[in-house]
Amino acid sequence: MRWKALLALAALLSACQVTPQTGQGQALEALGVLGGTEAQPTLLGKPLDLSGASLAKEGEAFSGTLLPGMVVQVKGEDTGTRIRVEALEVQVELRGPVANVDLQAGTLVVLGQTVYTDANTRIYEKAPRGYRTLLLSDLRVGDYVEVQGTATDTGILATYVERYPAPSSQVETEGRVQGLKTEAKTFTLNGFTVNYAQARVEGTPQDGVWAEVKGTLSGTTILATKVAFKGQGQSGFGTSRRVELEGPIANLDEAAMTFSLLGYTVDFSRAQVVGNLTEGSYVEAKGQVDGNDPTLLHAQLVKVKYPKTRAPKAKAKGQVTALDPEAMTLALGSLAFYADQNTLVKRDDPDGPMAFGEIQVGDYVDVAYDPATQDAEGRFYALRIEVKGATGSEEGEWEGPVQNVDSANYSFGLLGYTVVTDASTQFEANDQTYDQAGFFALIRVGDWVEVKGTLSGTALQAREVELKGRR
Fold first, then answer.
1. 86 burial level (CB within 10 Å; 0-12, 13-18, 19+)
2. Which of 377, 389, 408, 447 could pair covalently with 364 via S-S, beta carbons 3.0-4.6 A apart?
3. pLDDT(200) > 60
4. Within 10 A of 322 (CB to CB), how many other CB atoms are there?
5. What is the Cα–Cα distance from 412 to 211, expressed in whole angstroms?
6. Measured over all CA atoms, what is the biggest interatomic distance in the chain, rounded to whole angstroms?
7. What is the pTM assigned to this prediction?
8. Long-range pairs for 413-417 at CB < 8 Å and ≥24 separation?
9. CA atoms within 13 A of residue 441's CA, in its CB half-sphere
10. CB-hemisphere CA count at 13 Å for 217?
11. Are the C-beta atoms of 205 and 184 separated by less than 8 Å?
12. Residue 75 is inside which H or E element, if any?
């Protein structure tokens, strides 16, 4: 009956209303994964207004770049169309050397912890002009990385991995304390011995509690400078707070109706759940922190945003030149792809999921794919399709394998186009800049390149060309 429908609607609106009303919007406390772009980061699908914000990273002032995939804790105001940020802090789970990379499993091991990656994971390294994106296959044993995401007892579901240009003995990790020796001031964490004799200690040392450790790595011993003994995860909002979380879930327990998300245990037993919850799926959760346990969130609304999709082994960028919405196929010039209901399809602006049928010919897209899953028509399976810009953009980005090289005319083939360069084109390879002749002495068929420029017919006039290696 109509009155029951109205009551249900009122209950739903009440569930969505998790923060008090203010004069201009709603006060917001959130912990989640940044989306959008480097130029316009978003959270919970809304652009961030950072004009009056104080930025921090791990308790220290931060003046770096906010990138998609970063985990941030935000306090501010939701105006409805954007989030006006008062304070933002970047949250790091792990920092240290890579001990193992498993491309088949989509994992790497850092300081004894398994880091799980999928199509939602962003991998970066800093380049002379901003940041470049990487694949898991670009990482090597011994690389020094920073990891952000959802930490669990079995590892980390990574949303952000950054490779640093040089190794370091400075490490950061967290996990459950084992073998505590209070007199010696040591314990074991993920197979490493932590010596906290000279550390600044927060909380009470106990076996079995969660600990966050910063220090210097010497062999298999971490000489700690800071140790925080606490409940699992960030839980930085305190008890009885209404907060919003966004990120990948782990430890899904359908019987208990709980899962782990960014350091919280989320109880969804009384929540409205939109979508199909699965291990590793990417969700938004709104609710209230338990009055006695600051690591427990009682959710009122849980919405599945993106499915879990395995880690890609290749990617391409370009303009959609052909599209079949019913067959779920598209082409970027000479490179074609097929998708299905498990393909993650999203847009950058506004950040959020979209239907395959919303993609248009002429859109600039970033496609992460598996080159081992080619169909009878020569199309590759798309794990993630990300729409980067609208039809008619003046300049676009193209990425893929070099098809041919014409060193005499300083041009090469890419995705069926001819990339034309001139004296004004900027060239980069291995973090070094090159002139035109020097770059064309390096480039080979099969090399992976990224081109920024403008397309006219089948000619792509390059403003920037970066050699990214061979996939």
1. middle
2. 389
3. yes
4. 11
5. 53
6. 77
7. 0.88
8. 414/333, 414/449, 414/451, 414/460, 415/316, 415/318, 415/332, 415/333, 415/334, 415/335, 416/333, 416/334, 416/335, 416/458, 417/333, 417/455, 417/458, 417/459, 417/460
9. 5
10. 21
11. no
12. strand 71-78
Residues 270-298 as b/e (b if ≥16 CB within 10 A, e otherwise) read ebbeeeebeebbbbbbbbbbbeeebbbbb
The per-residue pLDDT for range 228-272, each reduced to its tens digit, is 998 655 556 778 889 999 999 999 999 999 999 998 999 999 999
Mean of the per-residue pLDDT values of the chain: 90
Structure-block tokens of residue 389: 């810009």
Contacts of 79 (CB under 8 A, 6+ apart): 24, 25
Rg of the Cα atoms in the chain? 24
d(Cα 97, Cα 217) in Å, to the nearest integer? 10
Cα–Cα distances (Å) from 416 to 208, 366, 412, 425, in that order, read 58, 17, 10, 20
Question: Which of 137, 162, 37, 132 minimizes the C-alpha distance to 428?
Answer: 132
Q: CB of 374 within 8 A of CB of 391?
A: no
What is the residue-wise DSSP string for 300-354?
A: EEEEEEE---BPPSEEEEEE--EEETTTTEEEETTEEEE--TTSEEEEETTEEE-
d(C-alpha 49, C-alpha 27), whole Å: 14
Question: Do residues 45 and 352 touch, judged by C-beta distance below 8 A?
Answer: yes
Nearest to 447 by CA among 433, 434, 432, 465: 465
- Tell me the pLDDT tens digit for each residue of 27-74: 999 999 999 999 999 999 999 999 999 999 988 999 999 999 999 999
How far is residue 432's CA from residue 249's CA, in Å, rounded to a whole number?
Answer: 39
Could you give the CA distance from residue 347 to residue 325 in angstroms, rounded to a whole number?
Answer: 16
Residues 130 and 132: their CA atoms lie apart, in Å, by: 7
Percent of the chain whose predicted confidence (pLDDT) is above 90: 80
Helix ranges (H only) for 167-270 are none
